[in-house]
Amino acid sequence: MAKPARAKKKQAAVPAKKGGKKAAPKTAAKGKDVKTKPEAKGLKARATTARAARTAKPSKAGAKKKRSAVRFLREVRLELTKVTWPNREELTQSTVVVLIAVAIAGVYIFIFDEIFSRFITFIAGLFG
Asked: What is the C-alpha separation between 11 and 25, in angstroms, rounded?
């Protein structure tokens, strides 16, 4: 079965030129340049980072990097300095909101528990 004439055009893989730069991608059918999308701009930076990671020399083959407890605690302390801590007013407001939400959920669960328990008692009374 033949493909319809209006099928989507696929992009052909374009080999890299000498000097590390790649040619603009072309469509397979007519050889026209394809406009690059804005999100494609970050690909070059990611490719450079990936290339640097591949070429980096490993310290020792198979050896794992050890992290000390002191370094871990130092990093924890550094991360905790980045936290935005709430002031007393914000903390009080958040606590009140949580308590109200818990009260509403409790009432909701209590109502449905009563409805279902009375329904089960009614059904048990019919058969027992």
From this structure: 7
Phi, psi of 16 (to 5 degrees): -75, 140
Residue 74 lies in a domain: no
Q: Is residue 24 part of a domain?
A: no
Instruction: Specify the residue for token string 């059904």.
Output: 123
75-112 burial: b if 16+ Cβ within 10 Å, else e: eeeeeeeeeeeeeeeeeeeeeeeeeeeeeeeeeeeeee
Cα distances (angstroms) measured from residue 83 to each of 78, 79, 80, 92? 9, 7, 5, 18
State if pTM tops 0.90.
Answer: no
- Inter-CA distances, 78 with 59, 81, 122, Å: 27, 5, 61
Does some domain include residue 120?
A: yes
64-86 pLDDT tens trace? 556 788 899 999 999 999 999 89
Query: Largest Cα–Cα distance in the chain?
Result: 88
* 5 occurs within a structural domain: no
Number of domains in the chain: 1
